[in-house]
Write a structure and sequence with these properties.
Carbamate kinase; 289 residues; two-stranded antiparallel sheet; globular; alpha/beta; 44% helix
Amino acid sequence: MTKNDTNRAETLIQALPYLQQYQGRTIVVKYGGNAMINGELKEAVIRDVVLLACVGIRIVLVHGGGPEIEALLKALGKESRFIQGLRYTDEETMEVVQMVLCGKVNKDITALIQRAGGRGIGLSGLDGGLLRAHRLKAGGEDLGLVGEIEAVDAALLNTILDAGAIPVISSVALGTGDDAGKSLNINADTAAARIACALGAEKLILMTDVQGILRDVRDPDSLIKVIPRPELDALAASGMVSKGMIPKAECCALAIDGGVKRAHIIDGRLPHALLIELFTDEGIGTMIL
């Protein structure tokens, strides 16, 4: 037996209590950022997700696709406009969003899961009315066909999870009210948080392109590893949570307030970030209690 063999065995032993703790529990992962673009990272994430399902964890994957949407809009000669971090979505943009998210990106991910030996079921919020939403107003500004989720069909997701499959969900919802039957564009982080609440998930994990929440954005060693929920509001009020981290923190707060036990912001640029977070004593990123 080599030293490497011993190290592998010790790693598995360290993971044992976490495997026991999470078996049969639901974990919702928001998959996006560089981990969706870099080929090696993409393979690592998909293998992690399949492994989690194989050891009895009920894993739900919610994905974004901003760079792919942006690339197609640019190719079509259409300029993007953002309001408070949300993409203004007219009917033409909505067609592109639906084409990219519900079509290419969603099916590419499910195909990768199948190739890795898992069972991926690709869904959008339109399928079976999985996600229902009304139009969102941001400070009174018109965002077009951007929605806020009002209902999640947890029974549909539980049926898929009970069958041992992995739901792969694109964040397009079915409109209600005046927009009944229309497609609405949903922020993927928010969709993941709402889904986690509806399923009573053990954890929500947001994969990003940063380490987590930093006390000083200029100092990578200032990572805050654990934040009790009440302190999150204080950090936001102090300005320590700023810019692109604000919506991430808000989604974590939404999940915790909705009954999810833990929410995590982790660096998806690190290979096997999911496994490191879930199955090691140290973990990575920022955890909100």
